[in-house]
Write a structure and sequence with these properties.
Blueprint (H helix, E strand, L loop, with lengths): L1 H14 L5 E2 L7 H5 L4 H5 L10 E4 L7 H6 L3 E9 L5 E6 L8 H11 L3 E3 L1 E3 L2 E3 L1 E9 L5
Antiparallel strand pairs: 1-8, 2-5, 3-4, 3-8, 6-7
């Protein structure tokens, strides 16, 4: 079970810089994503784009007070819907057996919704995509 989760994470992590999944509407696959059925969505379109979405503005996530006081560190894998203008319209924590403090998820979603992307290009047109990204909360020096 543990190695299977590592493999799934590795595949998603590798996909972050090389792929995204085109959809016409941000809600079209949201139910599948929320249920954790995102691997097929990502894997089906690995080489679909002329140019993948490119992050141009990253907003630092605010460290949630409760986990910070406890000294907790973690990361949150999100699936973002980036529209054809490069705005993030949806940010869904990737479902899975690995749980994180809910405050980390909330802070990651809040920050990701402020990100700005150079849109993905398909057939010389800017297109909306689902895009995975990891937001890491860590304490320097640990």
């Amino acid at each position: 079970m543990f190695s299977k989760r590592i493999l799934v994470f590795a595949v998603v992590y590798l996909a972050v810089s090389t792929t995204a999944s085109a959809v016409k509407c941000p809600d079209e696959y949201a139910e599948l994503l929320e249920a954790g059925e995102y691997m097929d969505l990502i894997a089906a379109t690995v080489s679909q784009y002329d140019y993948p979405a490119d992050l141009i503005i990253r907003v630092k996530a605010n460290w949630p007070p409760a986990p910070k006081e406890m000294g907790l560190q973690d990361s949150v894998l999100l699936l973002l819907y980036v529209d054809e203008s490069g705005d993030v319209l949806r940010a869904i924590p990737a479902a899975g057996k690995r749980k994180t403090h809910p405050d980390f998820e909330s802070a990651a979603v809040e920050a990701a919704l402020k990100y700005k992307y150079k849109p993905a290009i398909l057939n010389d047109e800017e297109v909306g995509i689902w895009h995975p990204i990891e937001i890491v909360f860590y304490i320097e020096g640990r």
